[in-house]
């Protein structure tokens, strides 16, 4: 009888632990499947750390044409502050949004509007997916249109991503100097 009670208690404890594990948010690694196919993590806006925002200046008018709002997987900012590099498995998600500009009491102000898409990068110093054309130079790279967070339009990071990131090669291909949260 005593053994049955202990057995039932153990089964109940396992069920509780399993239930908690199932309810727990996905890890940062959930941005890629086993083959290295990337997607936008569904929980990035609520679980990830806000890294910073870039305003892309409008070409012919005052204000901004786009806002780039960047999030980092949990713990990435603290790890970067310690080492000066994002650790293996770090996920960066950049929301790219249109911007609207208007005159306000504080001056001419731009704010983000419609989501255009996401850029997702996963730190991979181990070269985990050498045969996948979206992985290399220490990262997995992909662009996703706003209506397709699970299907990238990127085909080869060398052609689709490195052109914009070339100036940031010395900082592991990311524009880290633009993020005040990364500074000590």
Which quaternary structure do these chains form? single chain
**Anisotropy-based shape:** globular
Q: Briefly note the structural class of the backbone.
A: alpha+beta
- Range of strand content: 25-35%
Using the coordinates shown, work out and report the CATH topology.
Answer: Chalcone isomerase
CATH class: Alpha Beta
User: How large is the radius of gyration?
Assistant: 21 Å
**Major β-sheet profile:** 6 strands, antiparallel
Beta strand count: 6
* Overall mean confidence score, pLDDT: 87
According to CATH, the homologous superfamily is Cytochrome P460
Total helix count? 5
List keywords for this structure.
184 residues, alpha+beta, Chalcone isomerase, 6-stranded antiparallel sheet, 5 helices, 6 strands, 23% helix, globular
Strand-helix topology:
Blueprint: H1 2-23, H2 44-47, E1 49-57, E2 64-72, H3 76-83, E3 91-104, E4 107-123, E5 135-136, E6 139-145, H4 157-160, H5 162-165
Antiparallel strand pairs: 1-2, 2-3, 3-4, 4-6, 5-6
């Amino acid at each position: 009888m005593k053994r049955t009670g202990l057995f039932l208690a153990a089964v109940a404890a396992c069920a509780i632990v399993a239930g908690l594990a199932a309810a727990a948010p996905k890890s940062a690694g959930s941005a890629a499947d086993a083959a290295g196919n990337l997607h936008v993590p569904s929980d990035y806006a609520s679980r990830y750390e806000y890294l910073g925002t870039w305003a892309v200046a409008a070409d012919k008018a005052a204000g901004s044409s786009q806002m780039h709002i960047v999030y980092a997987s949990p713990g990435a900012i603290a790890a970067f502050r310690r080492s000066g590099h994002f650790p293996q498995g770090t996920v960066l998600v950049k929301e790219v949004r249109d911007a609207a500009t208007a005159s306000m009491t504080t001056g001419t102000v731009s704010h983000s509007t419609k989501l255009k898409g996401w850029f997702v990068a996963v730190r991979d110093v181990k070269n985990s997916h050498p045969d996948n054309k979206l992985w290399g130079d220490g990262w997995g790279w992909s662009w996703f249109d706003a209506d397709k967070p699970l299907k990238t339009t990127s085909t080869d990071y060398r052609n689709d991503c490195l052109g914009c990131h070339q100036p940031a090669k010395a900082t592991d291909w990311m524009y880290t100097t633009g993020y005040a949260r990364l500074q000590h």
